[in-house]
């Protein structure tokens, strides 16, 4: 038997409420007494409240409140854990490997009926997530661990605009998963304020000797949403954009982070967004191009930017055709 099997067997025997000596446990499991001691130590380290009493009538017992608590999960709880592990893995959850190990243990100790049910339900949930590379996952793990330990990091970050970004000290208060992206929220030493960073743009993380305390009652989720959904005091920086199209097209559009957080009104065949003018001049036109003529846009600014972006694209490929024709002529 593996150590995990021995630990579980010892736990079941102690849950009976009867005091057991190490010798009795060893004989029942056909293992050495020293193995029993190691298993008891591991169970205590994992939080099981085992009480050791010495003397002629001594032995091991377990606190009644723990013995009375359910050790096994019902069918719905088992299904929920398996589905949660699937979702977490595809979302890039940094400790999905640990979740998989936990569900493997769940299946290992399930009876035939439970195992059949789990195998039947597991394929019922699928998640299409962004590919999570090794470096990405390692950064998520480092950020989560540093947030839990209050450890300051040094971070290299790519702003995504081709601009070099200096290394900065970063106190990670938490990581947030939102609309297919992971964000790190914390105090930025370079800016001297709380900031949010996309984890996929991190290019390097290094531990430092510095420590920090997360501000009391700080919520990384609330901060990130406040940044993404903030209202600007200067209304000139914002533009109201109404887009008409088929309902399925608008559903797809609203699921994207660029539009989802900016939605202010939704009708079956139209969606109204409040968006920063800077994004309308940069990201939005190129994002909307693949939709072709499926969209009807009510925003003079965005229509003008779409026309300008289309003209640049047309000129680019016309130039390529000209160069190609010249090459064929030679």
UniProtKB/TrEMBL annotation:
Q: What InterPro entries is this protein classified in?
A: CBASS_pafABC_assoc_protein, HTH_11, WH-like_DNA-bd_sf, WH_DNA-bd_sf, WYL_dom
Domain WYL, residue spans? 139-206
Q: Which SUPFAM superfamilies match?
A: Winged helix' DNA-binding domain
State one Pfam family annotation: HTH_11
**Residues in domain Helix-turn-helix type?**
8-60
The protein depicted here goes by the name WYL domain-containing protein
> What taxonomic ancestry is recorded?
Bacteria, Bacillati, Bacillota, Bacilli, Bacillales
């Amino acid at each position: 038997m593996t150590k995990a099997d021995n630990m579980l067997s010892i736990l079941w025997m102690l849950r009976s409420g009867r005091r057991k000596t190490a010798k009795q446990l060893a004989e029942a499991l056909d293992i050495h007494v020293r193995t029993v001691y190691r298993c008891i130590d591991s169970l205590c380290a994992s939080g099981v409240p085992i009480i050791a009493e010495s003397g002629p009538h001594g032995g091991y017992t377990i606190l009644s409140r723990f013995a009375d608590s359910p050790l096994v999960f019902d069918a719905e709880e088992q299904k929920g854990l398996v589905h949660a592990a699937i979702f977490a893995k595809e979302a890039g959850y940094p400790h999905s490997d640990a979740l998989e190990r936990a569900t493997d243990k769940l299946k290992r100790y399930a009876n035939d009926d439970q195992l059949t049910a789990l195998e039947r339900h597991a394929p019922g949930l699928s998640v299409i997530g962004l590919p999570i590379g090794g470096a990405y996952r390692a950064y998520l793990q480092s950020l989560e661990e540093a947030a839990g330990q209050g450890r300051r990091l040094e971070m290299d970050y790519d702003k995504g605009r081709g601009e070099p970004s200096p290394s900065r000290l970063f106190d990670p208060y938490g990581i947030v998963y939102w609309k297919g992206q992971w964000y790190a929220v914390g105090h930025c030493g370079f800016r001297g304020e709380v900031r949010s960073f996309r984890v996929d743009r991190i290019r390097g993380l290094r531990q430092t000797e510095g420590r920090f305390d997360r501000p009391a009652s700080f919520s990384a989720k609330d901060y990130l949403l406040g940044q993404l959904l903030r209202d600007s005091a200067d209304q000139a920086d914002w533009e109201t954009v109404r887009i008409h199209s088929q309902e399925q097209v608008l559903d797809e559009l609203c699921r994207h982070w660029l539009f989802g957080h900016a939605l202010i009104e939704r009708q079956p065949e139209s969606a109204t967004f409040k968006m920063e003018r800077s994004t309308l001049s940069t990201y939005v036109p190129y994002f909307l191009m693949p939709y072709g003529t499926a969209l009807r846009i009510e925003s003079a600014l965005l229509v003008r930017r779409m026309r300008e972006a289309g003209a640049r694209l047309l000129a680019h490929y016309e130039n390529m055709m000209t160069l190609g024709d010249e090459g064929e002529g030679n």
